[in-house]
C-alpha cells in the first residue's frame, strides 16, 4: 500500500503544509480529499461527490493514483474536454510526463482497471487530471509495496509537479468560469520529459489532413512523372505497398507461432523476470522474418532491377501506408493520430531534402547520415513511447490470458513501425546475409534456452522481486433447487493462479495442487458457481481453476438470505423481494433463465447492466454495524417455466477477523514457495432458483 496510495497521501500532506504557510493568497479554495474504499469499487469517492455539501462548488480535481511502485507519475487521463486543464499542467508541471495515447488506451477499456476519476467525471460532472506512478508494477498490490522502495526523488518530483499545478489552478481566472472553456479535446504529449506539446484537437485534425494531403500529392506527382509511365509507376508502387503489408503479416504470423509454441510447451512468461529474453526471442524473430521477406522479393521478384529505384519505391510505399493510416485515424477522431503525423511529416521532409542522394548508387555515408538525422525525431519519440508502453504493460502481462501472444503483438507492432522507413535499405545494400545469420543465431539460441527452462518466470529476490500472484478462497458451497432443497454441497480451497502458467510451477512444492483437482465451470450457475469478488470471471475462462477438497467452514457471522415476497406485476412480470444480512463484503449474482429477462431492480437507477457473459453482478459492502440489506428484482418471464425463471446466488467474503483464514487455508498458504504472493480468505456461496 505504499504506492497505492500512501505516497500520494504523503505528497498531499506536504503540499497542504506548504500551501498553508505560503504568503501567496489563493483565488480559489482547495479541498484535500483523503478518501478510502477505492478498491471497494470506488465507493467513498462516489459518496463524497454525490452527497457532500462541498461537492457542488468543485470545478476541477487532480486525482493521485498508482499502477506501479514509484518512478515517474504519468498523466494518463484528462477532461472530459476542458483543454484549459491540460494547459495548466503544461504551464506548471516542472517535470512533465503525459500522453494522450495513455488516455485513449486506458479509456478504451483494454486495461482492466478503474479509478476515482470516472466517479468525479460521471457522477459529479467535474473535469480533472488523473496521475499515476507506473514503474515496477510487478510488486503493485503485493506485500513488497513498502515505503523503502519508493525513492525520495519520485516523491519530490510528484510534489513539484502537483504543487505547481495546484497553485496554477487555485490562482486561475478560468476556474470560476470553467464552463466557458469546456469545449474541445486536446492533443498532448511530453518530449523526453523535458516539456509538453499541447494543441487543440481541431488544430490537430487540420494539421493531420494537410500533412496527409501533401503526402498523397507527393506520391501522385511521383506516379505521374515521367509522362507516359503513370500506369507502370502506379503498378510498381502498389506492388511495393502490397509486399510491405505482406511482410508485416508474415512477421506477425511467425512471431505469434513462436509465442504459441512456447506457451504450449509450458514456458510462457520466461521473460517476466528477464525482459531482454522477449526482445531476443520475439524481437529477433520479427526482425529476421521482415528482412527475409524483402530479401527474397529482391532476389526473385525484383531480379536485375535498379537498386536505387527499388529503395525509392519502397520508401514511397511506407509513406503511402502511413499517409493512409494518418487519414483513417484522424477520421476516427483519435488524438493519438499525432504519432502518424510524425511518421509522415519527417520522412517526407527528409526525402525532399535529400532526393538527389536517393538516386545515387549505393547507400553512401553522407546519405545514411542525412537520412538518420531526418528520421531522428519520430524514431527517438517512438522509442521513448515504446519504453513507456513496456514499463506499464509488461507487469500487467503477469495477470493476462496468453501473455506471450499479447507481448509478441506489442513487439511486432513496434518492430514494424521502427523498420517501416528502413526496410528500403534491404534493396539498397548488397547483402543482408550477415544480418539474417546474426538475428537467426540469437533467436535459435534464445529459443533453446527458453525451452530448457533456464529462465524461471518469477523471482523472490529481495532487491527486485517479481512474484507470481495466487488467490485462494476456502469456500463452502450449497446449490438449492426450485423447492429450496440442497441438491449439491461441497467445501474446498478454490485456487486461481492468476496467470497463464496456472499452478504448474507450484505443484512441485505442493504436490496435492495438481491438474487432478481442476474444476470445470458450472455453466448453469451464475459466475461458474464460484464466489468471485469482482466481475472478472470472463478473463479467466481460459485459465484453469483448481478446487482442493477441504472441511466445511462455519463462520461466526454466517449469511442469512430470506425471500420476503413474490409478486405478480403487470405485463407478465414477477417481482422477488429479499433480505440479506452477513459479513461486511458480499457478492450477489443474478442469472435469468432462457426466455426470462431482468427488466428492473431496486438498485442504482433501476436499470440492470449485465457483466460480460450475460450474468448480473452486485458488490455489496457495509460497516461493522448495519441493518439487513433489502432489495428486489423484477423479471419478465413466459407463463410456463418448469425450471424457474432465475438463478440467484449470494457469496459472503470474510476479509478480516477470526473468520478470515481457516486452519487448513493458513497451513496451505505457509507451504507456497517464496516467489509467490498469495491472497487468501474464507467465503461461502449459496445458489437459489426461483
Strand order of the largest sheet: 8-9-7-6-17-16-12-14
Q: Tell me, what's the shape? A: globular
Distance between the termini: 42 Å
How is the main sheet built?
A: 8 strands, mixed
Residue windows where pLDDT falls under 50 for at least 5 positions:
none
Q: What Rg do the Cα atoms give?
A: 29 Å
Average pLDDT over all residues: 91
Beta strand %: 15-25%
Q: Please, how many domains?
A: 3
Number of helices: 19
Question: How many beta-strand segments?
Answer: 17
SS-derived structural category = alpha+beta
Secondary structure: helix percent: 40-55%
Fold topology:
Blueprint: H1 2-21, H2 43-51, E1 61-66, E2 73-79, H3 83-92, H4 100-107, H5 116-124, E3 128-133, H6 152-170, H7 173-176, E4 186-191, E5 195-200, H8 201-224, H9 230-264, H10 276-301, H11 307-331, H12 338-353, H13 355-358, H14 365-374, H15 376-396, H16 403-419, H17 425-428, H18 433-452, E6 468-480, E7 486-496, E8 518-519, E9 545-549, E10 560-569, E11 573-581, E12 585-592, E13 597-601, E14 616-621, E15 629-636, E16 646-654, H19 663-671, E17 676-689
Parallel strand pairs: 1-3, 6-17
Antiparallel strand pairs: 2-3, 4-5, 6-7, 7-9, 8-9, 10-11, 11-15, 12-14, 12-16, 13-15, 16-17
Helix pairs in contact: 1-6, 2-5, 3-6, 8-11, 8-12, 9-10, 9-11, 9-16, 10-16, 10-18, 11-12, 12-14, 15-16
Domain Endoplasmic reticulum metallopeptidase 1/1-A TM: 234-451
InterPro entries: ERMP1-like_C (IPR053973), ERMP1_1-A_TM (IPR053974), Fxna-like_M28_dom (IPR048024), M28_fam (IPR045175), Peptidase_M28 (IPR007484)
Transmembrane segments: 191-219, 240-265, 271-297, 367-387, 407-429, 436-458
Amino acid at each position: 500500500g505504499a504506492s497505492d496510495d500512501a505516497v500520494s497521501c504523503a505528497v498531499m500532506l506536504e503540499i497542504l503544509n506548504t500551501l498553508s504557510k505560503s504568503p501567496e493568497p489563493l483565488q480559489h479554495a482547495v479541498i484535500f480529499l483523503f478518501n478510502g474504499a477505492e478498491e471497494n469499487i470506488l465507493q467513498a469517492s462516489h459518496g463524497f461527490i454525490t452527497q457532500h455539501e462541498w461537492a457542488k462548488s468543485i470545478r476541477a480535481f487532480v486525482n493521485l493514483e498508482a499502477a506501479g511502485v514509484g518512478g515517474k507519475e504519468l498523466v494518463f487521463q484528462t477532461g472530459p474536454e476542458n483543454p484549459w486543464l491540460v494547459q495548466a499542467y503544461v504551464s506548471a508541471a516542472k517535470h512533465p510526463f503525459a500522453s494522450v495515447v495513455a488516455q485513449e488506451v486506458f479509456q478504451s477499456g483494454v486495461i482492466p482497471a478503474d479509478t476515482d476519476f470516472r466517479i468525479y467525471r460521471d457522477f459529479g460532472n467535474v473535469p480533472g487530471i488523473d496521475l499515476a506512478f507506473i514503474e515496477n508494477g510487478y510488486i503493485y498490490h503485493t506485500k513488497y509495496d513498502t515505503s523503502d522502495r519508493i525513492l525520495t526523488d519520485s516523491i519530490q518530483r510528484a510534489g513539484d509537479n502537483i504543487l505547481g499545478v495546484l497553485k496554477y489552478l487555485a490562482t486561475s481566472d478560468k476556474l470560476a468560469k470553467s464552463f466557458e472553456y469546456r469545449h474541445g479535446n486536446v492533443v498532448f504529449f511530453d518530449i523526453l520529459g523535458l516539456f509538453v506539446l499541447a494543441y487543440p484537437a481541431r488544430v490537430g485534425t487540420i494539421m493531420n489532413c494537410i500533412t496527409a494531403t501533401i503526402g498523397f500529392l507527393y506520391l501522385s506527382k511521383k506516379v505521374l512523372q515521367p509522362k507516359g509511365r503513370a500506369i507502370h509507376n502506379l503498378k510498381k508502387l502498389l506492388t511495393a505497398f502490397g509486399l510491405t503489408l505482406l511482410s508485416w503479416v508474415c512477421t506477425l504470423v511467425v512471431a505469434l507461432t513462436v509465442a504459441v509454441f512456447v506457451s504450449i510447451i509450458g514456458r510462457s512468461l520466461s521473460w517476466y523476470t528477464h525482459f531482454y529474453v522477449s526482445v531476443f526471442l520475439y524481437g529477433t524473430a520479427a526482425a529476421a522474418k521482415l528482412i527475409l521477406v524483402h530479401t527474397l522479393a529482391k532476389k526473385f521478384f525484383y531480379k536485375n532491377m535498379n537498386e536505387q529505384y527499388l529503395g525509392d519505391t519502397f520508401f514511397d510505399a511506407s509513406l503511402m501506408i502511413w499517409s493512409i493510416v494518418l487519414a483513417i485515424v484522424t477520421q476516427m477522431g483519435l488524438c493519438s493520430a499525432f504519432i502518424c503525423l510524425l511518421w509522415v511529416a519527417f520522412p517526407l521532409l527528409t526525402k525532399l531534402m535529400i532526393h538527389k542522394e536517393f538516386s545515387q548508387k549505393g547507400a553512401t555515408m553522407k546519405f545514411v547520415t542525412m537520412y538518420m538525422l531526418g528520421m531522428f525525431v519520430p524514431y527517438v519519440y517512438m522509442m521513448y513511447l515504446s519504453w513507456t508502453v513496456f514499463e506499464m504493460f509488461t507487469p500487467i502481462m503477469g495477470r493476462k490470458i496468453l501473455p506471450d501472444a499479447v507481448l509478441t503483438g506489442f513487439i511486432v507492432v513496434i518492430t514494424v513501425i521502427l523498420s517501416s522507413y528502413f526496410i528500403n535499405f534491404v534493396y539498397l545494400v548488397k547483402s543482408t546475409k550477415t544480418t539474417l545469420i546474426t538475428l537467426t543465431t540469437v533467436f535459435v539460441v534464445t529459443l533453446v534456452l527458453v525451452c530448457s527452462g533456464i529462465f524461471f518466470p518469477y523471482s523472490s529476490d529481495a532487491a527486485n522481486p517479481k512474484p507470481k500472484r495466487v488467490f485462494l478462497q476456502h469456500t463452502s458451497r450449497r446449490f438449492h433447487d426450485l423447492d429450496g432443497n440442497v441438491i449439491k454441497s461441497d467445501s474446498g480451497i478454490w485456487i486461481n493462479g492468476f496467470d497463464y502458467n496456472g499452478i504448474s510451477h507450484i505443484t512441485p512444492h505442493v504436490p496435492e495442487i495438481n491438474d487432478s483437482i481442476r474444476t470445470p465451470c458450472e455453466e448453469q450457475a451464475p459466475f461458474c458457481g464460484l464466489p468471485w469478488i469482482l466481475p472478472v470471471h470472463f478473463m479467466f475462462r481460459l485459465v484453469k481453476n483448481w478446487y482442493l477438497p477441504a472441511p466445511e467452514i462455519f463462520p461466526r457471522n454466517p449469511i442469512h438470505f430470506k425471500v420476503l415476497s413474490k409478486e405478480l406485476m403487470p405485463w407478465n412480470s414477477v417481482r422477488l423481494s429479499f433480505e440479506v444480512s452477513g459479513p461486511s463484503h458480499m457478492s450477489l449474482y443474478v442469472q435469468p433463465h432462457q426466455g426470462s429477462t431482468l427488466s428492473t431492480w431496486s438498485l442504482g437507477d433501476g436499470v440492470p447492466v449485465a457483466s460480460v457473459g450475460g450474468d448480473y453482478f452486485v458488490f455489496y459492502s457495509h460497516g461493522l454495524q448495519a441493518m439487513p440489506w433489502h432489495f428486489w428484482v423484477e423479471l419478465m418471464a413466459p407463463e410456463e417455466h418448469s425450471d424457474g425463471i432465475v438463478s440467484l446466488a449470494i457469496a459472503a467474503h470474510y476479509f478480516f477477523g477470526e473468520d478470515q483464514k481457516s486452519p487448513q487455508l493458513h497451513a496451505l498458504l505457509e507451504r507456497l514457495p517464496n516467489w509467490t504472493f498469495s491472497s487468501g480468505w474464507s467465503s461461502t456461496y449459496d445458489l437459489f432458483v426461483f
